[in-house]
Structure to design on (392 residues):
C-alpha cells in the first residue's frame, strides 16, 4: 500500500467529507463507480475555493490513492477524467426569488496532467451551484470508499440527504433512471429488469455498506409501476461512519499524538471512533518503529485500513523483520510491475488458493491478506527469489 502524501492535501481534503449540491447529485450522469468517486474527491479538493479560484490542483498520486486506485496507472485516471469532461450536468431548480432556473454544463470544463499534478476547473455556472450552501448533502469519503457498485453509490448519494425527513418523496421512474445513469436503455424501460439489475442490488449494498438503511416502495398507474420512493433511516450498526464533531475524543493523549503527527481533526476522530485508542496507539508505535518513513500519516492510513502493524507485526528497531519486512518487500515487488502484470499476478495467485476463506480474504485485502501471508511470500519468492535472499 502506498502512502498518501498528506502534506500535499488541502484543508478541504483533510476534512474528509464534501458538501455536494442537490442539483449536481441529481444530474451527475452515466458515471462509472471510479468516475463517481473521482468526481467527489475533486469536488472536495476544490470546495473551499470554488467561488474564488478559476482552477484547482491536486497531486495525481494522492488523487488515485484517495479513490482507492493504483497510483501508477495514469491511463485509467486519464480515461476517468475524460469521462467527467464529456459528461453533461443539468440542473432544474428554484432561485432565491422562487423563479425556475435550468442550466447545463460539463462536469469538468477541462482537466490536465502535468508533472505529476492534476489541474482541473469547473464552469463558473456549475461552480456556483456546487458551492451553494443552502441545499447540500454531506458525502463522507470514508463511506464512499466502501462501495463497489456505481448504482449503489448513486443511490446512496441521492438518498442520504433525505435521512432527516425519512423519505425521498416520489420520483417518476424516468427521473430515477436518470439518477442511476440507465436512461436511454430499452432494457431498463421494463421495471422487472430495472428492479432485478439496479434497484435490488443497489439497495442491498447501501444497507450493507453505508450509514443508512433504505427501503423502496412503488406506486402504479393502472398495472404499470410509474413512481418509486425510498424510505430512509439511520443504520445503527454503521453509524460509527458518521463522525461526531463533539469534544469527547479530543481530550485523550492518542488524539494529541495524532494531531502532532499532522493528522486532521476530523480524520483523528474518525480513526479513534472506528478503531479505538489502544489500536490506533499500537499502529502509531508500529509506524514510529519503521524509521525513515517519508509520509508517516500515509503509512498510518495504510496500517489502519489494511490491518497490518498490530502487535504481531511490531518489529524491533530498524531494519524491519518478520512479517512487516516481508510485506514491505512484497509491496515493492508489486509496485515494480506494470498494471497488466499486476492483474495477471493476482489471477495466478487466486488460482492457487483452494480454501474459500483464503480466497475471500485475498479478494478483499489483496497482497495485505493476513490469512495468506505464507502463501504470498512463497508466490513472490518464486517470481523473484533474489529479493528475499538479499534480505536474509
Amino acid at each position: 500500500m502506498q502512502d498518501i502524501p498528506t502534506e500535499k492535501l488541502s484543508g478541504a481534503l483533510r476534512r474528509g467529507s464534501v458538501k455536494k449540491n442537490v442539483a449536481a447529485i441529481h444530474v451527475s450522469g452515466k458515471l462509472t463507480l471510479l468516475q463517481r468517486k473521482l468526481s467527489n474527491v475533486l469536488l472536495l479538493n476544490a470546495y473551499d475555493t470554488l467561488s474564488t479560484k478559476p482552477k484547482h490542483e491536486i497531486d495525481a498520486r494522492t488523487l488515485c490513492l484517495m479513490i482507492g486506485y493504483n497510483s501508477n496507472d495514469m491511463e485509467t485516471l486519464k480515461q476517468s477524467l475524460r469521462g467527467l469532461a464529456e459528461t453533461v450536468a443539468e440542473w432544474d431548480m428554484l432561485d432565491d426569488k422562487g423563479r425556475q432556473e435550468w442550466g447545463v454544463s460539463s462536469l469538468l470544463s477541462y482537466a490536465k496532467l502535468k508533472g505529476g499534478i492534476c489541474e482541473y476547473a469547473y464552469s463558473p455556472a456549475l461552480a456556483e451551484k456546487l458551492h451553494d450552501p443552502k441545499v447540500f448533502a454531506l458525502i463522507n469519503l470514508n463511506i464512499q470508499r466502501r462501495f463497489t457498485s456505481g448504482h449503489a453509490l448513486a443511490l446512496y448519494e441521492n438518498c442520504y440527504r433525505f435521512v432527516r425527513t425519512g423519505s425521498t418523496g416520489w420520483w417518476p421512474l424516468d427521473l430515477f433512471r436518470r439518477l442511476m445513469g440507465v436512461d436511454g436503455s430499452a432494457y431498463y424501460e421494463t421495471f422487472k429488469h430495472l428492479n432485478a439489475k439496479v434497484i435490488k442490488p443497489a439497495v442491498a449494498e447501501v444497507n450493507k455498506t453505508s450509514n443508512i438503511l433504505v427501503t423502496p416502495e412503488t406506486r402504479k398507474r393502472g398495472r404499470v409501476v410509474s413512481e418509486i420512493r425510498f424510505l430512509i433511516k439511520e443504520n445503527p450498526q454503521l453509524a460509527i461512519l458518521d463522525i461526531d464533531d463533539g469534544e469527547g475524543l479530543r481530550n485523550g493523549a492518542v488524539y494529541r499524538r495524532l494531531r502532532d503527527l499532522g493528522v486532521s481533526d476530523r480524520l483523528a476522530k474518525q480513526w479513534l471512533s472506528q478503531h479505538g485508542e489502544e489500536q490506533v496507539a499500537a499502529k502509531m508505535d508500529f509506524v514510529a518503529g519503521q524509521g525513515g518513513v517519508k509520509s508517516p500519516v500515509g503509512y498510518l492510513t495504510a496500517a489502519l485500513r489494511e490491518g497490518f502493524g498490530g502487535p504481531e507485526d511490531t518489529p524491533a528497531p530498524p531494519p524491519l523483520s518478520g512479517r512487516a519486512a516481508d510485506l514491505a518487500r512484497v509491496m515493492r515487488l508489486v509496485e515494480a510491475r506494470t498494471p497488466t502484470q499486476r492483474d495477471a499476478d493476482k489471477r495466478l495467485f487466486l488460482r492457487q488458493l483452494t480454501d474459500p476463506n483464503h480466497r475471500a480474504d485475498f479478494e478483499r485485502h489483496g497482497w495485505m491478506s493476513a490469512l495468506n501471508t505464507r502463501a504470498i511470500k512463497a508466490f513472490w519468492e518464486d517470481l523473484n527469489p533474489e529479493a528475499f535472499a538479499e534480505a536474509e
